Amino acid sequence: MLTLALSKGRIFEETLPLLAAAGIEVTEDPEKTRKLILATNQPDVRVVLVRATDVPTYVQHGGADLGVAGKDVLIEHAASVDGTSGLYQPLDLQIAKCRMSVATRADFDYEAAVKQGSRIRVATKYTAVARQHFADKGVHVDLIKLYGSMELAPLTGLADAIVDLVSTGSTLKANKLVEVERIMDISSRLVVNQAALKLKRERIRKLIDAFAGAIRP
Ligand code: PRT
Ligand code: MG
After folding, report:
1. Which residue out of 53, 167, 172, 176 has the highest number of ligand 1 atoms within 8 Å of its CB and is therefore the one to mutate?
2. Ligand 1-lining residues (CB < 6 angstroms)
3. Which of 18, 54, 93, 194 could make an SS bond with 50 (beta carbons 3.0 to 4.6 A apart)?
4. pLDDT tens, 125-165?
5. What ranges make up the beta strands (E) of the chain?
6. Ligand 1 atom 9: the closest Cα is on which residue?
């Protein structure tokens, strides 16, 4: 049996065409069932639905043989567990694309604050990425860890800036925030459990090859 960990929403939706290229069709709709384990048309392949941030944990510890996770999630996971031993990342799938950026209120002069060497208060869910980014720039920051709705932080005075994912930019716009710096491009990767790769080499190779052939940049 091959177990693939996916999160509901954009990652599930955007992985479907890759699965189709490997001859795999998920036979249930995650939006219409409460089941967490979904069967496929292949008797030896199943999908488990987990939170996006839990995908690397499932794969690293063998709860799933493979998974699909954003670069953002993989970086934060590696920082939180001190490495990703046991996680093989053979493919950038070029799906669920977005960017990690710094955003502030329009009336906050980010460039000036950086130039003056002021301490900046930054709210984010992505503390590893933020810490590294500002350390590289030599900017002093007080990081405030949040688990959601980062956009609210500059509006309430909790922080001067946020580090968050941006795709269309409409969430920032709706909250009158401006993107002041791009940190990195984000896309989702295929991650594979190292032990599974050895034990189920043929089956996993076939899947990786089919996915690789279906990647559209
Ligand atoms: O939503 P939930 O709390 O369950 O978990 P999650 O947010 O971790 O999962 P999900 O499914 O929303 O995101 C899964 C992965 O998709 C992330 O880890 C990213 O790698 C990738 N991705 C791509 C995004 C976006 N685009 C994105 N736009 N993840 C989140 N967003 C959010 C962003 O945080 C912001 O709130 O969408 C908002 C901005 O979108 P725009 O279009 O308004 O700019
Ligand atoms: Mg989300």
Report:
1. 167
2. 7, 9-11, 51-53, 70, 72-73, 96, 98, 164-171, 186, 188
3. 54
4. 999 999 999 999 999 999 999 999 999 999 999 999 999 99
5. 2-6, 37-39, 45-49, 66-70, 87-92, 98-105, 120-124, 141-145, 161-166, 177-186, 188-193
6. 52
pTM given for the model = 0.96
Q: For the segment 103-122, what is each residue's pLDDT rounded down to a tens digit?
A: 999 999 999 999 999 999 99
Give residue 85's pLDDT band: very low, low, confident or very high (50, 70, 90). confident
Residue in the block written with tokens 């046991």: 86
What atom in ligand 1 is closest to the CA of residue 174?
43
> Mind listing the domains of the chain with CATH numbers?
2-96+187-214 (3.40.190.10), 98-186 (3.40.190.10)
Whole-number Å distance, alpha carbon 200 to ligand 2 midpoint, is 32
